[in-house]
Sequence to fold (189 residues):
Amino acid sequence: MNIILFGPPGAGKGTQAAKLVDDRSMVQLSTGDMLRAEITGGSDLGIRAKKIMEAGKLVSDDIMIKMIEMRMDDDGAKAGVILDGFPRTLKQAEALDRMLTQNNVAIDHAIEITVDENLLFDRIENRAIQSDEVRDDDNAEVLKERLKVYHKNTAPVLPFYRKKGILRQVDGMMTIEQVAEKIDKILDS
Ligand code: AMP
Fold:
């Protein structure tokens, strides 16, 4: 089973993806985590991506598509993936569709985690305080830009999956456990 988690920054995509990895042995493909690993590793891509991420903007489609393509080919990913943070643009969604078709697989569920955006600022600040990993984009100023980018580039991807009849919404303002329960129901439906 292949699923996509959508939602603005701080909606809980990463948290829910991690739960699915634990509970269902699925493979999480988080493009944000992959980029942060590139930054930690000090690669050229990491150096370029760091600036873009700190500004709350999107890394180019070509780079992101290549990054996901390489990971989708991994054996582990063939068992089923949770895409967390990809696709973020229509071009990425179309490229993903082509990749999956070539491999004779499809997305089974696209789940949009909805949130009250006014409350995201507190959440992101808490994440910055509680997390071991320091993220330069977890602050109010960058969050504003990331939200703008989400509405401009990523929200238009949702109708692509709605048309396929696989888009479902989950209220991300509930507790982590409650959100996970709703997602479980969708995956088991
Ligand atoms: P995330 O951890 O998913 O919130 O991603 C952190 C940052 O990485 C984003 O704000 C973007 O700058 C970059 N990024 C992650 N995934 C993508 C993607 N699919 N396309 C473009 N940029 C991305």
About this structure: Residues 9, 31-32, 35, 52-53, 56-59, 64, 85-86, 88, 92, 137, 146 surround adenosine monophosphate (CB under 6 Å).
